[in-house]
Amino acid sequence: MKKHITDLRNALYNHDLTVASEEDSPAFPAMWTLSHPYFTLPMTIAFYNVNDISVIPLHESFGCYLMEQPEISLYFTKTNRHSWQRDLTVFIKTLMQYIHSTEAKRDKVVRKDI
């Protein structure tokens, strides 16, 4: 699954999203805090743990999701490269739509306060 992690990181980077910090936690193999040069709200991607007893290495995770909006998730397809690329594209597109929508709502509130 190392390739999936690399593909995900590259897809985020291609949309000006960078992994500002990487943390391990007791419940997740990793959590990535994302940053973007024009968006202000922090976002965190959590990676699924497949082991109830201990935390697995990141490259063994079977998927990830946006902690602020768990419905935005991605399964790391093992068998079909085409399906993986399609799913990754949909994940990034949905993530970007969420970011734009959230930032627009925040901007609207800020403008009302001015």
Topology diagram in text:
Elements: H1 2-14, E1 18-23, E2 31-35, E3 43-47, E4 63-66, E5 69-75, H2 81-113
Antiparallel strand pairs: 1-2, 2-3, 3-4, 4-5
Report on the architecture of this protein.
With 114 residues, the chain is α+β, with helices and mostly antiparallel strands. Helices cover 40% and strands 24% of the residues. The protein contains two helices and five strands; from the N terminus they run αβββββα. The chain has helices spanning 2-14, 81-113, and strands at residues 18-23, 31-35, 43-47, 63-66, 69-75. Strands 1-2-3-4-5 form a five-stranded antiparallel sheet, with helices on one face. Helix 1 packs across helix 2. It is globular. The mean pLDDT is 87.
Please supply descriptive tags for the structure shown above.
single chain; 114 residues; alpha+beta; 5-stranded antiparallel β-sheet; 24% strand; globular
Give a short summary of the structure.
The protein has helices at residues 2-14, 81-113; strands at 18-23, 31-35, 43-47, 63-66, 69-75. It has 114 residues and is α+β, with helices and mostly antiparallel strands.
Shape: globular
Low-confidence stretches: none
Class from secondary-structure proportions: alpha+beta
Spatial order of strands in the largest sheet:
1-2-3-4-5
Give the percentage of residues in beta strands.
15-25%
Based on DSSP secondary structure assignment, what is the total number of beta strands?
5
The first-to-last residue Cα distance is 48 Å
* Oligomerization category of the chains in this entry: single chain
The biggest sheet amounts to:
5 strands, antiparallel
| Secondary structure: helix percent | 40-55%
Rg (C-alpha, Å): 15 Å
**Number of contiguous helices:** 2
Mean pLDDT: 87
